[in-house]
Amino acid sequence: MQQTEQHFIGRSKELASFTDWLNGPTTPWILYIHDAAERQEKKGGIGKTWLLRRYQELAQQICGNIAIVAIDFFNLTNRDRIAIAKRSVEALQIAYPQWSATSFEKALHHTAEEHDTTSSDARDSLSAALVTDLQKLNALLAKNEKALLLFFDTYELVEQNPLIAVLGTRRNFPDSYEFPHTRVVIAGRNRINWSQPNWQGREQEVCELAIAPFSPEEMAQYLDAESLYSIPAQSKEAKILHHLTEGRPILIGLAIDVLNHRTITLPELVAVPQEEFEQYLVPQISKLENPLNWVLMFMAHVYHRFNLTILDWILQTEDLKDIVYHVQQEKLVADLPTLSFVRRSTSGDDFVLHDEMRRLVTKYCWGTHDPDHRYRQAISRAMIAYYKQQLKQQPSKPPLSQQEHQAYTIEMLYHLLFVDIQIGLEYFREQFDAVLNLWNSSFARLLLQEAQQFTEQMHSHQLFDLLLREARLLAAEENARAALEILQKVEHQADTKWLEEHRETLFSQIGQCYLQQSKLADAIDYYTRSRDIAHAHNDIEKYAYNVGQLGYIYRRQGELDKAIKHYQETIAVYKTIDRQRDYADVLNSMGNVYRFLGRTDEALRCCKIALRIRRQLLEAGQIGERPIGLSLATLGLIYMNAEDIVQAERYFQAAIDIYYRIDYKSGIAATLNRLGQVEIAKVDRQQAEIGHASLQHAQELFQRAEVVAYALDEEAYINSLNKQGRILARLGKRAESAELYRRGIEHARRIQDHYQEAEGLIDLCEALEYLEEHEASQQAWLEAKEIASREHYAFLLARGEEIQGDLYYIAGNYMKAYEYYAEYCYQAALYNELAYSKALRKLSDSLVALTSDQITPIVDALIPLWETKEKSKDYPQFVAACNEIKEFMFF
Predict the structure, then answer these.
(1) First-residue to last-residue Cα distance in the chain
(2) Cβ neighbourhood burial of 874 (10 Å; 0-12, 13-18, 19+)
(3) 172 and 58 share one domain
């Protein structure tokens, strides 16, 4: 690539587009270039890297002292958020020597001392410090000045999880560091996937540019600049060469390289049929002079990094000494960059082989010269020994950073897989399971990508095992739909023997995917099947896990007795086998059930013990932060139910801070909804003008939850719609609220979330009544009542009866209103003691507001009505309250 930087060829349209984009004061801040080809096998080698380097030169000419940072995701060390931030700071300090990133440097020093550069806390600390420093630089710059230009190459290697390159946990890729003078250019093989969470709703931020192969005129310019042969643009040979290469710069460059090195003549080259051209051209590399030819093949196999130190290390291997000779390092350093497909690394002493050329060399050269893999096995064994040495702690050297340790681990995994697929997969499973258990999905994704390169060498059972882990990672990344597609594929394609051994795990993971999508009936089905298999195999650990998950689903459905029964069974098992992590999980869940039952003290005790255990496990490095957030959120809910709003808000805020750090979007959405409910609760305790501000804040929180949860967490998404509807209802905007309720109901029906369907119908019923659509309102209430009665949703039945009572009370039909209020009290009593007390208080307060002659007939009707209800004798407070009001109001 080096020679073409000096003699850049063609691309006038692409260069003009870049100049217009960079000069435009209102253009999107991201420019994304990708291959124009649709067929995957035709992508790559199109000249994107070449174009990016030319863009960098133009940017320097246009913007003067702009800070330019070039990141190539092919290099594992470049797939690191902190390294990208550091290079951005270094470039800005050179461009603006009057500025210094003192806060960032201080935070970076602190994280280095703590040996903690990848945790969420460290990331947020560094991000906040950098934002602070850049705000100071912002004050020194003109409004539309471009100060930082980031280039990201080979984006396709991280496109499934681009957040590995983002410093702040609350931001998406690319990370601008909240610096308005940042511009970004990204180059990838594929178009942007706008349905991916990272890109959803961001079309206005991006300008896309498709890159096509060289035109005949552009190829002619390249030939004039680089070929030692004279090949006129209009000659027959030039036209044939363009046809054979299809205008792909990677093949044009290689053709000129082999012609210039005289491994083939032009007549021989243009005589090759097109369908054989690629497989004829690429092997010409092996005809280059020794050692250049072998070094290129070594580079293709070593893959991740290559330099002279690694070459010396490899050449100590006995099997390789005889094939490479006369290595003159100075000559090699000079010769390698003369080839069109080799470039020097932007940092360090590494040489980089174009990723498409690596594929071609592996496909067409190694197969001929190493049919039994003997040489490549030797190279890989040498590299494994090299990485083991690098990973080994040596007193004379500073300890590896976490980023370096991860890079060496991934690179060694590749060679372990090549030498022995079974040993490599065992190493992969060990590393993958460990990092995913700590919620480090970014590292897990890199490990998976490395293993996926060897799927063709895996037998079917190994492939199915890999697919299970891919699905687990997707679920951890909150992409339950994609995970479920993989699991269903495995369920239908796996053979009987593999299924017999893995059916329990497969069904459990499928159940988890359905649960994430709030498809509770399907989740129950698969967890039950998984539980039964575990019981038959006497696997008490997996049995307990499935029973606990079923308990959670029953709690979601409001079947609290079933939930308690399942949780108690699970707790007994975990005590027996001493599983502290799982014990804490179920204990926290049990506390949640006690919350629904109004047993506040028991709920708090369970959850605080669970939180203590989880914090101890976190300190021991056995869990990540997510369980801590779940404990804090549950405690917030308990205090919310107990109407301790101050404590509830404190715990919710602590939980969401963790969720932002670990980028747990479902948790973020759910907690935003809960913080919105806190704001609503404040309204009931504040003056009207203050309350209006709280309602507006609540609406903003619910809207943020809707955005985060969209296409990710249906439960939180529906909840956010319903809560926004309630805010609009309180503001008197009944038609708008009804529309939001309908949207929520539609989503709930689609995913069979009966609870939220019934809840939405109850809200809709109230809105329609205010809109004077009485018939439609009653229809909504009857539908809601049928669902809630069938599914035993006592809380929703209580709320629905209360709303019906309110509507008749407002209309002045007091007798009818109190019939509903009596049913409200009864359903609340069936739900929990706290709700029953609240319902009785409302009944009493509203009765007292009436006159004596109104109260007497109402009470005389309510008491016999109450006594006809099943279990009414278990709740004598109702009759006592009615009699007391009637007696005290006699005068």
Answers:
(1) 100
(2) exposed
(3) yes
On the question of pLDDT at 591 being above 90, the answer is yes
Quote the pLDDT of residue 113: 63
Residue 156 predicted with pLDDT over 70: yes
> Same domain for 136 and 230?
no
Residue type, 839: A
> How many structural domains compose the chain?
4
Q: Both 228 and 196 in a single domain? A: no
Helical segments of 620-713, H only: 626-641, 645-662, 665-683, 688-709
For helices 580-596 and 560-577, the axis angle rounded to 10 degrees is: 160
Q: Are residues 14 and 140 in the same domain?
A: yes
170 or 725, which is more confident: 725
Whether 157 has a pLDDT exceeding 60, the answer reads yes
Q: Among 822, 161, 244, which residue's Cα sits nearest to residue 436?
A: 161
Q: At which of 512, 547, 571 does a domain end?
A: 571
Q: Does any domain span residue 91?
A: yes
Place of tokens 């072998």: 294
Structural domain including 511 reads: 487-571
Lowest mean pLDDT of 1-10, 314-323, 556-565, 596-605, name the range: 1-10
Structure tokens at 354: 């174009």
Beta strands in 36-172 (DSSP E): 67-72, 148-153
What is the largest distance, in Å, between two alpha-carbon atoms of the chain?
A: 118
CATH number at residue 132: 3.40.50.300
- We report the CATH number of the domain holding residue 527 as 1.25.40.10
124, 238: one domain:
no
DSSP-based three-state secondary structure for 306: coil
Taking the CA atoms of 404, 405, 411 and 415 in sequence, report the sign of the dihedral they define. Answer: positive
Q: Does residue 51 belong to any structural domain of this protein?
A: yes
Tell me, yes or no, whether 310 lies in a domain.
no
Q: CA-to-CA distance for 90 and 100, rounded, in angstroms? A: 9
461: in domain = no
Q: What is the DSSP letter of 206?
A: E
| 121/190 same-domain check | yes
Judged on CB neighbours under 10 Å (0-12, 13-18, 19+), 232 is: exposed
Instruction: Show the CA angle centred on residue 575, arms to residues 574 and 579, nearest 5°.
Output: 50
Q: Which amino acid is at 727?
A: I
Token look-up 């529906």 returns: 718
State the DSSP string of 27-42: S-SEEEEEES--SGGG
If 0-12 CB within 10 Å is exposed, 13-18 middle and 19+ buried, where does residue 706 land? buried
Burial 545-563 (b: 16+ CB within 10 A, else e): bbbbbbbbbbbbbbbbebb
Residue-wise burial string across 38-47, b where 16 or more C-beta atoms lie within 10 A, e elsewhere = eeeeebbbbb
Distance from C-alpha of 259 to C-alpha of 242, rounded to nearest angstrom: 15
Residue 783 CA from chain centroid, whole number:
37
In angstroms, rounded to a whole number, what is the distance separating the alpha carbons of residues 523 and 843? 40
Let me know if 672 is exposed, middle or buried by CB neighbors in 10 A (0-12, 13-18, 19+).
Answer: buried
CB 714 within 8 A of CB 751: yes
Residue 454 CB contacts under 8 Å (≥ 6 apart), including other chains: 417, 418, 421, 424
Instruction: Check whether residue 198 and residue 228 sit in a common domain.
Output: no
Task: Spell out the SS3 assignment of 203-214.
Answer: HHHEEEEEECCC
Phi-psi region of 64 (alpha: psi -120 to 50; beta: other; left: phi over 0): left
Residue with tokens 């959120």: 633
Average of per-residue pLDDT across 92-97? 93
Dist CA 87 CA 104 (whole Å): 12
Q: Do 142 and 272 share a structural domain?
A: no
Give the position of tokens 């038959």: 536
pTM of the model: 0.69
Q: Give the end of a domain, one of 571, 605, 640.
A: 571
Asked if residue 494 lies in contact with residue 465, where contact means CB atoms within 8 angstroms, the answer is: no
Sheet holding 182-188, edge to edge: 67-72, 148-153, 182-188, 30-35, 206-211
E strand or H helix that includes residue 547: helix 540-556
- Looking at the chain, the whole-number percentage of residues with pLDDT higher than 90 is 57
